[in-house]
Amino acid sequence: MKIFAIRDESVVNQIDLAYLLYYEVEKRFYIELPENADPWETPLLLSSFIKKGETSINSYWSKIWVQQRIVPTDRQNLGQVLKDNNLKEYDEFGLLMLSMGRCAQDDYYLVPIEENQLPEQIKKRFNKLIEDVVPLNNFSLLVFFRDGSVKKCSIIDRYKNAPSFQVLFKNEDFFYAITLQPGGHGIEWDVNLSVSAVTLYRIGTKVPLTASDFQNFVVHRVVNVAEAAEILGCSRQNIDYLTKAGKLHPIKSSGKNTLYLKSEILKRNWQ
Question: Are residues 87 and 133 in the same domain?
Fold first, then answer.
């Protein structure tokens, strides 16, 4: 992760107006605003979030802010611009670095900083980023946060009237295809359908569970085909037969790897 402070060159006493985070592998941008950010000093696009009480800007709007400061994709001589700057392809971050975020419309620019240079309020905010997420029945999520808390979040209760989420509620398989955003800043189903970590932390109901509790469950209560065969004292082929016959129900099957709940395997011995 690369971090940059956003500053205003026209101001005598330089202060950090916001912080731009960039994840290189995923090519994702995120912007964090100070708690006491002044909407009159903050870049225009970002100031609208301050007025709504939001200080963590999602990847979509953060990218829009970056795109406003670089050569657009429809530039007539774009190919020559990339060639002149030794860029093999259009790359937002590469173009942004050419001028360190400066553009003709304003006096904002970027200054590289280390994570330990971030203010404490931002570091504390990072404690509420997501470590992991598990989709549950009824369009709910079990979310594990960096500060150790675990919360159950009902997506359907929160977004049942949101038009963009209707495609999610109509396709349960799509819901289970949830992914974690880079850095744990949120969760998403595609780049245009996401929920921030801040929102999930706020709407979630805390549950008496820890990440290690969940890991222990997986380690001790989930078995593969070989382990299931050992418990039942049969061959792997017999496990495959029981599965195809509907007498065993795998919780996950991918190629040659099939996983079962240990409790179901044990119950076969009780019959």
Answer: no
Taking the C-alpha atoms of residue 127 and residue 133, their distance in angstroms, rounded to an integer, is 15
Q: Give 204's contacts (C-beta < 8 A, 6+ positions apart).
A: 143, 151, 152, 153
Do 22 and 134 lie in a common domain? no
**Domain carrying residue 254:** 213-270
Residues 197, 246, single domain; the answer is no
Report the alpha-carbon distance of residue 227 to residue 236 in Å, rounded. 9
Q: Say yes or no to pLDDT of 271 above 70.
A: no
Q: Are 174 and 124 in contact (CB under 8 A)?
A: no
Digit-coded pLDDT (tens) for 195-211? 999 999 999 999 998 88
* Claim to verify: residue 108 and residue 178 sit in the same structural domain: no
Task: Kindly state whether residues 163 and 84 are assigned to the same domain.
Answer: no
Identity at 253, one-letter amino acid code: S
Dmax of the chain from CA atoms?
Answer: 80
**Mean pLDDT of the chain, nearest integer:** 91
Structure tokens at 200: 């999930």
**How many C-beta atoms surround the C-beta of residue 253 within 10 A?**
12
Q: Are 33 and 57 in contact (CB under 8 A)?
A: yes
Q: Are residues 175 and 255 in the same domain?
A: no
Give the residue from 218, 208, 174, 212 showing the smallest Cα distance to 193: 174
Which of these three, 94, 123, 152, is where a domain ends? Answer: 123
Q: Tell me the torsion sign for CA atoms 217, 220, 225, 228.
A: negative
